[in-house]
Amino acid sequence: MPAPDDTTPGPVSDRADHTVLDARDISRALTRISHELLERNKGAHDLVLLGLHTRGVPLARRIAEKIAAVEGAPVAVGELDVTLYRDDLRSQPTRRSHKTVLPPGGIDRKVVVLVDDVLFSGRTIRAALDALADLGRPSAVRLAVLVDRGHRELPIRADHVGKNLPSALAERVSVRLVEVDGTDEVSIS
To answer: Where do we find the motif PRPP-binding here (predicted)?
Structure first.
């Protein structure tokens, strides 16, 4: 059986996974990120959450639900596909593209929070910033990630982090979410 990547759910018998976050841990991390966003933004006014495909989209929706529960009003949520902005298209040309969906009202003069599952080299976020430049002009852009595993290749850092997870380059951090994979879990192998 081939080893799964970050987009393939399910265990593989020949590798040892260590669960670092379970469903309750993920929920707590997203609650903390939601409260940090509200504090930094002084409420949900002009806040737009853009989830990066694939697992950043359900994370953005969950954060929006938690913020709405506190604020009593919905938060704008969209989806951002960065496939065509990636700098590794020549080496990995078979990436599946997704649809970018901006919320009504767009992103101009809004505080845009990019939401992703794992921050690693920083290249996906660089691609997201390039995509945003083509879509509008936010007043500010922030980054919220469930896991920051280090090993940056670009000068990018997250403003809001669910879990800092120091890791070796040879290790794989896998995020599984109910909406995509049928379970909530972060593991390292």
So the answer is: 112-124
User: What pTM value is reported for the model?
Assistant: 0.89
Q: Which CATH class is domain 20-188?
A: alpha beta
CA distance 101 to 186: 26
Of 128, 140, 124, 121, nearest to 50 by C-alpha is 128
Residue 153 burial class via C-beta count within 10 angstroms: exposed 0-12, middle 13-18, buried 19 and up: exposed
Closest CA to 129 of 96, 87, 163, 169: 87
Measured CA to CA, the distance from residue 57 to residue 72 in angstroms comes to: 21
d(CA 165, CA 26) in angstroms, rounded, equals: 13
Domain boundary assignment for the chain: 20-188
**How many angstroms separate the CA atoms of 119 and 182, rounded?**
22
Nearest alpha-carbon partner for 108 in 168, 50, 55, 46: 46
| pLDDT tens string 125-177 | 999 999 999 999 999 999 999 999 999 999 999 999 999 999 999 999 999 99
